[in-house]
Structure formats: C-alpha cells, structure tokens
Specification:
It is a single chain. The protein has a domain of about 170 residues: Spore Coat Polysaccharide Biosynthesis Protein SpsA, Chain A, CATH 3.90.550.10. The chain is about 30% helix and about 25% strand. With about 260 residues, it is of the alpha/beta class. Strand 5, helix 3 and strand 6 form a beta-alpha-beta unit. The strands form 4 sheets. Strands 2, 5, 6, 7, 10, 11, 12, 13 and 14 form a 9-stranded mixed β-sheet that branches. It is built from 8 helices and 15 strands.
Length: about 260
Amino acid sequence: MKPSKIYKAENAIIVAAGVGERLSPLTDATPKPLIKVQGKPMIESIIDAMIQNGITEIVVVVGHLREQFDYLPDQYPSVRIILLFNPYYDTCNNISSLYVAREYLKSSIITDGDMMIHNPKILYPYFEASGYCSSWAEETKEWLQKVDEVDVVKSCSRTGGQKGWQLYSISFWNQNDSNKLRTHLEELFEKRKITDVYWDDIPMFYYKQEYVLKIRRIHRADLNEIDDLQELRELQELYEPEEIEIREKQRTLNHLKGENL
C-alpha cells in the first residue's frame, strides 16, 4: 500500500553513537555503523538511500570513536550532514542519543546506523501517519506489533511472538508526534533519570496512549539489521576476499607459533 502524501519528512536522524559490544572485537577499532558489509560501510547505505529519496538534512548522532565519522560531510557535499556528539553514549542506552538530537526533531525519519538498506524505496519520504517500518513475521524474537484492519498499532511485545508485524528501527514522525517525543524525552531522560531504555520505549510503552502509530509495510529482504556477529556472518561477503586471506594466514601463523612453543 503506497502511503498517501500527507506528511513529508524534512530531515533524518541516524543514531550511530553506541559502542556495539555484541560486535566486539570488530567494534573495538571501528564504530558499528562503519563496519563494511559487502564492501560498504553500513551507514553509507542508509545515507545513499536517504539522498535518493530527497532528504537533504541528515543528523548523525555519534559517540564511540566519533572522529571516524568526520569524513561524512565531505563525502556527501550535496546534502547537509550534521555530526552531533552524544556525551552519554557509553553510560546510557540510545534514549540518550535522541535526547541529544531532540531539537532537530520535526517531520523526521529516525533510524539506527547499523543496518544495510537494500531497497531505498522503504525511505519514501511521504507518509500518512507516524510509525515504524515493519514486515510480517510468522514467528520472531524481535519486537512484534499487532495491528487492526487499517494497520494502526494496537500492542507491541518486546520479546516477540507469532503472527504479527516485526518492528525495524526505521520510523517516520510527523511534526505533532515529534513535539510529543521531544517533551517525553525530556520528562523521561532529564527529569525522571530513566537512561537505560531505548528511545522507542517512549511511544511503544511509556506513553503509548498518546500516540496513534501505523506500520509501514515492507519486505524482510528490504534491509538487514545487524545486531551481533552471527548476523554479520550470515551476510555474504562480510569481509573482502583479501581480508579473509589475511585472517586465515594469521590464524595459521598463530597455530604454528603455538606448536613451536
């Protein structure tokens, strides 16, 4: 179902500040969104898709190894890329990143930086209601939404379930809902000092009665979200062939050294 042209995203916010502990040791030296999949940093697949859809202001919230993102504005001179530092990145969950970026919330797309976009059309900037990109799942351990006959979200489970719409970390927010998000971020993070949750907990759980969200239907193959090393391994060509060869040689050398001790 093609979204009606009611709201249009004016900018995008990419949350890219986290340490990415589940991808260690890769993330010890490289921020998770800059890890290459199929020869390309994940965050570049997101930015490329946004540019294809006419988004000209992109806020990237950085933290872990933030200096490695400094090349992005020069690489994409046709758009305005704002690098915004999250000083809470190593002590708080990603609610802190959207809190830091709250003044940029308008009619916005919000996404994590650790995914590969295979179908840029899922970032089509026109939308009829705030909500998340979602694909049908017979069964999943990821966040799972139940919707009514017009795709309005009625409930969400953090622990997954069966026969519902799996939530992905690409969402669209109209100006009115962005204003609510800004207020709720300040209430939850700043005043109540709740820092160990995802920002998505705000509309899905903490203040769910104040949002009317609709899913944006996508296909599972439209993107890959990368949460851990196993999911990276499942993608073909995780490393360039020469990197694989270097690693195999190093493994063999280490093995031989061990035999000679």
